[in-house]
Predict the structure of Dihydroxyacetone kinase subunit DhaK.
Amino acid sequence: MKKILNNPADYVEEMLEGFVAAHPEFYAQPERRVIARPEGATSGKVGIVSGGGSGHLPVFAGYVGPGFLDACAVGDVFASPSAEQMASAIRHADGGAGVLRLYGNYGGDVMNFDMAGEMVDMENDIRTTTVLLADDIVSAGKDEAEKRRGVAGMIYAFKIAGACADTKADLDEVTRVAQKAADACRSIGMALTPCIVPQAGKANFELGENEMEMGMGIHGEPGIWRDALRPADQIVDEMIDRILADHPFSKGDRLSVLVNSLGATPLEELYIMYRKVKQRFDDIGAEIVMPLVGRYATSMEMTGATITTIALDEELERYLKAPAACAYWRVG
Amino acid sequence: MKKILNNPADYVEEMLEGFVAAHPEFYAQPERRVIARPEGATSGKVGIVSGGGSGHLPVFAGYVGPGFLDACAVGDVFASPSAEQMASAIRHADGGAGVLRLYGNYGGDVMNFDMAGEMVDMENDIRTTTVLLADDIVSAGKDEAEKRRGVAGMIYAFKIAGACADTKADLDEVTRVAQKAADACRSIGMALTPCIVPQAGKANFELGENEMEMGMGIHGEPGIWRDALRPADQIVDEMIDRILADHPFSKGDRLSVLVNSLGATPLEELYIMYRKVKQRFDDIGAEIVMPLVGRYATSMEMTGATITTIALDEELERYLKAPAACAYWRVG
C-alpha cells in the first residue's frame, strides 16, 4: 500500500486535524468527526448538512462554507458516519429555521441520517427534510432512478441549495430547490485503476494493465463494460451519449458541466476530455455555463474521471452563480 | 500507459484547447503554445512571463491571471518551449514597462529564455530581466545554491512578483522583489511512483513495490536515498529537518508553507502531512501564514509530495496577501 500515512487506524482523525489546521477560516471541528463553520450556525437561515464516508475530498466536508454547507458528518473511509455524528452535525447547522439533509443515496447513510433526523426532532425540536443525490445514471435504469447512487452531482446541489438558503428562504423552499438541482444532474464515471482503503491495505478491485471500466462507481461498484483502454474522444463520446439518452439537451439549452478526476488522473487529461465535451455541446447548440474541471469529488488515488451535467433554468443558474466560498471552490 | 488521451503527439495541443475553453475568463491562446490574459497586457505595468515544459499543471500556464503572470510559453511534456515561443510570450506580456522572466532553473529553459530576451530586445525594444527559481534544496549543496532546480516555490514567486507589479512598481523593483521571494523559498520532494511522458509511453523511473525516494525531483531526478516506505510523520520530520538545516526558522518568525501533491497523492494524505508540518513550526514558535495544501505544481500522475517554505518579512507577506486570481488560486 503506497500511501503517505501513519497508523491506518488514525487516517481519518489525522486527516481532519490537518484539514482544520490548514483552513481555519472555513472549517472547525466542534466535535469528533463533525466539521462545521467556525462562526457557528447562522441564525434564521435554513441549515444544510451533508455527510458520508471519508476518502472523497473535497467531498463532503470540504464543501462546508458560506453559500455551501453548514456542517458535515465524517465517516471512516467509504463508510457511513454514525447516526449520533449526523445528529451532532444537524445540531451544529441549526440556526432555528430547520435543517436540510443533503447527501448521496447510499443505504448506510440513508439509515443513519433518518435516525439522526428522529433524534434531533425528539431531543432538540429541530425540523429536518431530506434530499438525496442520485445522479449516477449507470447505477440503475431510468425507470428506477430513485435507486441510483449519488456521485459528483452533489456539489452542484450543495452550491445551489446553499445559495437558496442564503436568501433566508424557508425550509420547504430550500428543500424544493435542492430537489430540483438534484433532479437536474446526470453523472457517469469511468475508471483505469482502483484505490486502496487504508485500513484494508489492498485495492478494492482489479483492472488489467491496459483495461478500463465504463460506468464504474466511486467505490469500485461494477460498471457497464470492461475492455481495452480507448482513446479519450471515444470515451467522452460514449459518456456524453449515455447522459444525453437519459437527459436530452437541445439547441438553446443552458447547462453546467463538471469534468472531475477521481484522484490520480491529472488536469492535463481532464482538459483533453473537456475539449471534447465542449465540442459535443457546441454541436448541439447548448451553452455551458461555469464549467468545472478538476478534482471536486474523488476516491483518493483512483485513476479515472466522471462527467456531470446539470440542466439549468433561470432559477438554478442564478443560485449557481451566487457568491460562495470554501477551500476548493469560490464563486463571485 | 494508462492515460485518458488521444494521439500522444496531440497531448499538449488538445490539453491547451480544453484549458482555454474551460477558463476563458483567465486564459487566452493568442498564438500556438502561448497563454496570455484575454484582456491583453496592462499598459504601464511590468509584465511577468514564465514558461517551461508541460505536465506540471497548474504550473506554469495556470498561474496567468490578475496579480500573477501576464503570459506563459508552453513546451512539450517536460521539455522547454522554443525561444520563439518565449519571445512571443514576452511580447504578449509587454505593457511598455519591461518584462520579468520568472521561471525554474533548468538548462534548456535558461538557454531559450536568454535567447528570447535578446530577440525582443532587438526586434521590439522590450527590456527584460530574469529571476530564476532554484528552491529544491536536494538538487545541489548550499554552497552552490545557484545550481539548484526550481520546483513548487515558484508559485510563491509568481504571487509576490505579480502583486508587486500590480503596484506599478518599475522593472528593477519588481525584479528585486521577485528575487527576494525566490531566495526565501526552500523545497524538498519525495516520490512513491513515477509518471509517464505520453510520447515516451513508459515511466521515467522505477520504484519497488514498497519503496520511496527522498529528495526526488519532479522529473524523476535522483534524490538522497531510496528505501522502504516510512510513516508519514517520519517522512515529514526528515523533510522539515532538511529545510531547517538549509534555512533555519526561529520563534516569532513568519512563513508560508505549501504541502503539494505531485499528482496522484490525495488531499487526505497531504492533510496528514500538513498536521505534522504545523506541529513542527508550532514547536519552534514560528507562525504559518496562508498555508497551501493541494496540487499547485505537479508531474501529471506521479505519486509523492513536496514541502515548500517561504520565510516572510513584512514586504513579502503584504504582497503574498494582496488580491490575485487564477483558476487554481484566489487570494483576497
